[in-house]
Amino acid sequence: MAQIEKVISYFKKLCSIPRASGDERKVSDYIAEFARARGLAVTQDQNYNLIIRKPATIPDAGEPVILQGHLDMVYVKEDGSSHIYEDGIEVTEDEEYYFADGTSLGADNGIAAAYCLAILDSDDLVHPDLEIVFTVKEEVGLVGASLIDISSLMGTRFINLDSEEEGVFYTSCAGGLRCRMIWNTETERLEDERVPLKVIFRNLTGGHSGINIGMGLGNAIVLLGRLVWLLRELPVRISALDAPGKANAIANQASVCLYVKPDDLDEVRIKLKKIEKTFQEELQYTDSICFELAEGKSAAGAEVYTEKYHADICKSLMLLPYGVSGYSFAIKDLIETSMNLGSLTSDDGKLTLLMSLRSSVASQKYMLRDKIQIIADAYSDDCIFESDYPGWQYRKESPLRDTAMALYEKLFQKKAKVAAIHAGLECGYWDEKKPGMDIISIGPDLFDVHSVNEKVSKESVARMWLYLTELLKALSKSG
After folding, report:
1. Other CB atoms within 10 Å distance of the CB of residue 369
2. Do the bridges between strand 290-295 and strand 195-202 make them parallel or antiparallel, or are there none, so unpaired?
3. First-residue to last-residue Cα distance in the chain
4. What confidence tier does 394 reach under pLDDT thresholds 50, 70, 90?
């Protein structure tokens, strides 16, 4: 089997193993056993992070090189999809791409793991001593990277394989922080007759809360808050606010149940049509949206949020910042600071809004945190900040970066690009835990990650496999 065919075979195997964030035990055990079967040293910690060591294939190969990717993926599926998470994901393909049918693919970061498995399985690649690190729960706040002990690593050259654009060499990233705003919702029953009218948002694209945050995409939670606010002058009560999603994905699904007096139903429908048109006009160049209405039978005794919680939730959603709040003046077109509303869900009487804050400037991240805290103090019952992770600062001198970029240009006759990313990379933790490490982040062309439209370029996967093997060969001579 050709080496690139091995890569794809391992990728398909990894996709077949359910591995949403927090559910990495099976895939971690699979990789650990894979490595042990090949006589390699394996360290698996209690969180299922892995460190696997493979000796150099030539003498005097220089100091070790560290390769790193994460095991988990963001699992999402289309509305109405019958896909069962526990069945894993079947990889589909056409002439240009690998993708999935109605779900996210998991190429982020399954391709990196597949590259590493192919390297571990190879007996003819030239490379120095390798320390291969697999982490868990990257997609929910870089948790694995924050917990793993890397003090035993001997290498100082670190290649992260979690980038999504071929030929772009990332050398810095944003730090991040997550927040849960919570309402201990109280309800009451209405004595008069009301018609339940469920409003469901359709057709929003969604996307990565860092990479796509500046694209003008509609956020279902932001729009849901505006919808409820725009109905404030009508005698409408609400319940069942719902927007399932992830902190690091732009919310693209939402619904709310409106309880309307029968005599007001026509007026509410007209108002909803106007709101829908407003949203469509605002998003006409970047996204699309429509409302699906589901009307129930008129009855007394509807259970709705109390007027206090109705108002507090609505005011919070209207006041919370969303999107880009600042651009970098050091790197052209780089988003410096942003905020995403990722999910709004109910459980046991609690309504929880999950948010993600990002900034390459720590003080700006914490200023955004303080703004959220002020809103939370006024209009919510609790506000919890968590998963605070560091950024990764650009370094003027980087022999690894210089070698890597020169090799890319030599192999493909294309100009390589140095870039910073407005997203969380685990490189921030490596930089913090082992100061002085020389780090780059690379990867093949991935598109629409964290969504059901996720796909990866077949040609780019093959090119980056060739490139990675040639880079390891070059580093075995320059160590």
Report:
1. 17
2. antiparallel
3. 31
4. confident
Rounded distance, CA 446 to CA 168, Å? 12
pTM: 0.71
pLDDT value of residue 1: 47
The residue annotated as part of the active site, out of 138, 242, 336, 426, is 138
Cis bond upstream, residue 109 (ω within 30): yes
Tokens 């003090």 belong to which residue?
151
Q: In whole angstroms, what is the distance from residue 130 CA to residue 175 CA?
A: 28
Instruction: Write out pLDDT tens, residues 169-178.
Output: 999 888 889 9
Mean pLDDT score of the chain? 95
Tokens encoding 440: 């780059």
- Establish whether 72 is a catalytic residue: yes
**In angstroms, rounded to a whole number, what is the distance separating the alpha carbons of residues 344 and 375?**
16
Q: 3-state class of 366 per DSSP?
A: helix
Mean predicted confidence (pLDDT) in 180-192: 96
**If DSSP codes are grouped into helix, strand and coil, which group holds residue 348?**
coil
- Percent of the chain beyond pLDDT 70? 99
The C-alpha atoms of residue 46 and residue 140 are separated, in whole angstroms, by 18
Question: Residues 193-230: pLDDT tens digits?
Answer: 999 999 999 999 999 898 899 999 999 999 999 999 99
Identify whether 138 is a catalytic site residue: yes
Beta bridge partners of residue 351, listed in sequence order: 183, 346
Q: Strand pairing of 323-327 and 438-441?
A: unpaired
The pLDDT assigned to 379 comes to: 98
Query: Rounded to an integer, what distance in angstroms lies between the CA atom of residue 89 and that of residue 74?
Result: 12
3-state secondary structure of 20: strand
Number of other CB atoms surrounding residue 43 within 10 Å = 15
Give the Å distances, CA to CA, from 307 to 235, 236, 317, 402: 11, 10, 16, 61
Backbone angles phi, psi at 230, to 5 degrees: -70, -15
Per DSSP, 335 falls in state E
SS (H, E, C) 40-80: CEEEECCCCCEEEEECCCCCCCCCCEEEEEECCECCCECCC
Angle between the 458-478 and 107-121 helix axes, to the nearest 10 degrees? 50
Question: Which one of the listed residues 72, 129, 438, 445 is annotated catalytic?
Answer: 72
**461 vs 467: CA distance, rounded Å:** 10
Task: Give tens-digit pLDDT for 255-288.
Answer: 999 999 999 999 999 999 999 999 999 999 999 9
Helix (H) or strand (E) holding 173: strand 168-173
Q: Is the pLDDT of residue 30 over 50?
A: yes
Total Cβ atoms within 10 A of residue 217? 18
Phi and psi at residue 363, in whole multiples of 5°? Answer: -65, -35
**Chain-centre distance of CA 289, in angstroms?**
22
